[in-house]
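pls design
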């Protein structure tokens, strides 16, 4: 899978969930799986956006 680099500034899981368009619980799951990585308050969310896009396409994440 191609990796999309996209870095944002987020203070917490709520900010990340807003940026990614998912729930804070999903953000925590992504962090636990290593899909999303922190660098201080800068977050590289490219892989998470790719993952969420693919999951939405497959219909396995969105309710």
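designed seq:
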């Amino acid at each position: 899978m191609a990796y999309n680099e996209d870095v944002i500034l987020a203070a917490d899981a709520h900010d990340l969930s807003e940026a990614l368009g998912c729930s804070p619980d999903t953000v925590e799951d992504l962090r636990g799986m290593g899909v999303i990585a922190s660098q201080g308050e800068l977050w590289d969310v490219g892989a998470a956006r790719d993952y969420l896009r693919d999951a939405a396409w497959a219909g396995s994440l969105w309710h």
